[in-house]
Amino acid sequence: MIKVLFICHGNICRSTMAQYVMQDLVTRHGLADHFYIDSAATSMEEIGNPVHRGTRAKLKEVGIPCGDHRAVQMQRSDYDKYDYIIGMDNWNRRNMMRILGKDPEGKVSLLLDYTDHPRDIADPWYTGNFDATYNDVKEGCEALLAHIGETKGGRL
Q1: Organism's domain of life (predicted)?
Q2: Does residue 12 form part of some domain?
Q3: Model confidence, pTM
Q4: Cβ-count burial of 94 within 10 angstroms (0-12 exposed, 13-18 middle, 19+ buried)?
């Protein structure tokens, strides 16, 4: 089982979008039984809140099921539970490391690190642009799945 945890600041926009986009990808590739995918926040601001209406609307528009995830905060113990702990921007990475303390196994990365053009994914909470965020998340999730496939030597 490959365990992936997506992280953003509040766990209502980008990380939940990545969670559901990645789940849709692995399902469409017949790999759902090989993955456990979840998301969390670095902050406590949105704990308990549902997926943001803009994220929910964008996922519906592109035909990706959106579940009833509620925002939770990342915990230090998540390091031992997950194979990949993936943030959306460098600010997330700094806060992830503040929570985790260290990354001896190299599990922490940013989603777009797996693409040909690593960069931050803008937070639609501030930009209002859920289309741009979705495009970046989709690109990153596709690249992450390809990376995992290569890393596992096609044994998924």
Answers
A1: Bacteria
A2: yes
A3: 0.96
A4: exposed
